[in-house]
């Protein structure tokens, strides 16, 4: 089904109503919606409204309590979320890291067992708005194999880094070492191109369509395929090394056993630590002048969001709009 053009206000109304089906508290619901909506407006559609039908089953299983830091050790706060909503807890952790870094120069918030968390760069922007630099990474459900006959080893674990960028906005790099992301496959269910490489069905075959990568459960689509890391290419080996490093770093910070749903957010106040914040700004300005507009990470999405909101119109896949409308009732 082709894309259709819709009024931004109508999409927001229907999308909010669909998210209201998740059974979350009012504050959790608002937090989840704001991130999904921000991703959609910025053109990061793999983390936007295509996730709503999939999230329906996931978030209904989360418990509704906001855990307090289980442990405070110097400049580290550790949360044991015990299945709390990742979107919400990541925001709580980011705000704590921000506030403590403003007071002390540096703070790390680590959380176990909270999934999903969505776009890590979204939380880092809460830091850059106060002049802080940030680093975040998380572990996600194991989907990545190193060989077709092997077992799933890692998730498509993302990592993000952000620095303030002056009047043109922060510079935020948000990436994964995997050849593709779960969100790209999910978006393909709504007529986005299916990634050409790096995917296998549950039977170990190359898929001809996204429907072969999912099972339809009562709570929503469930991913049954795998993502294959190309260990025969330099880029594939570098990506695998990055995923390995993130998994080991998270084991160090969150403790055993490893697995999905752990994340860490580091906030750093350059001036309080005697670092040269002006040098970061100068380098960002230099790169901005030498690159085409919007090429620095994070800048393109902010500009797209502004344009969409000003125009009052946006496009969605017709299939997705139908599903959201049915969920909204």
Strand segment count: 14
Oligomer: single chain
Range of helix content: 40-55%
Count of the domains: 2
Encode the helix/strand succession as letters: EHHHEEHEHEEEEHEEEEHEHHEH
* Ends apart, CA distance between termini: 21 Å
- Mean pLDDT across all residues, rounded? 89
Q: How would you characterize the largest beta sheet?
A: 7 strands, mixed
Would you tell me the structural class of the helices and strands? alpha+beta
- CATH homologous group name of the largest domain: Malate/L-lactate/L-sulpholactate dehydrogenase, NADPH binding domain
* Uncertain residue segments: none
Residue fraction in strands: 15-25%
| CATH class group of the largest domain | Alpha Beta
**What is the CATH topology assignment of the largest domain?**
Ribosomal Protein S8, Chain: A, domain 1
Question: How are the SSEs placed, and which strands pair?
Answer:
Layout: E1 3-7, H1 8-19, H2 26-41, H3 51-60, E2 71-73, E3 76-84, H4 86-104, E4 106-114, H5 120-128, E5 133-138, E6 144-145, E7 158-163, E8 171-176, H6 182-188, E9 199-200, E10 214-217, E11 220-223, E12 226-228, H7 234-254, E13 263-268, H8 277-290, H9 299-311, E14 313-317, H10 318-328
Parallel strand pairs: 3-4, 6-12
Antiparallel strand pairs: 1-14, 2-3, 4-13, 5-7, 5-13, 7-8, 9-12, 10-11
């Amino acid at each position: 089904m082709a894309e259709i053009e819709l009024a931004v206000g109508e999409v927001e109304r229907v999308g909010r109503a669909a998210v209201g089906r998740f059974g979350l508290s009012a504050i959790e619901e608002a937090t989840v919606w704001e991130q999904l909506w921000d991703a959609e407006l910025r053109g990061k559609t793999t983390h936007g409204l295509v996730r709503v039908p999939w999230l329906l089953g996931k978030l209904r299983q989360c418990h509704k309590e906001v855990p307090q830091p289980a442990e405070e050790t110097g400049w580290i706060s550790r949360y044991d979320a015990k299945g709390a909503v990742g979107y919400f807890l990541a925001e709580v952790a980011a705000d704590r890291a921000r506030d403590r870094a403003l007071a002390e120069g540096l703070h790390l918030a680590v959380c176990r067992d909270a999934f999903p968390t969505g776009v890590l760069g979204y939380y880092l922007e809460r830091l850059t708005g106060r002049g802080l630099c940030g680093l975040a990474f998380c572990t996600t459900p194991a989907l990545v194999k190193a060989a077709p006959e092997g077992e799933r080893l890692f998730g498509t674990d993302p990592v993000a880094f952000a620095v303030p960028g002056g009047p043109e906005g922060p510079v935020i790099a948000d990436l994964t070492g995997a050849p593709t992301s779960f969100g790209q496959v999910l978006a393909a269910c709504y007529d986005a191109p299916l990634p050409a490489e790096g995917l296998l069905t549950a039977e170990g075959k190359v898929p001809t369509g996204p429907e072969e990568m999912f099972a339809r459960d009562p709570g929503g689509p469930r991913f049954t395929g795998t993502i294959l890391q190309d260990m025969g290419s330099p880029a594939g080996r570098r990506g695998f090394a990055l995923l390995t490093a993130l998994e080991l770093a998270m084991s160090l910070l969150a403790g055993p056993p490893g697995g999905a749903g752990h994340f860490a957010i580091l906030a750093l106040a350059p001036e309080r630590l005697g670092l040269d914040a002006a040098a970061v700004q100068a380098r960002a300005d230099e790169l901005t002048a030498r690159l085409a507009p919007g090429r620095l990470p994070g800048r393109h999405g902010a500009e797209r969001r502004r344009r969409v909101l000003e125009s009052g119109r946006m496009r969605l896949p017709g299939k997705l709009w139908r599903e959201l409308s049915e969920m909204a009732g």
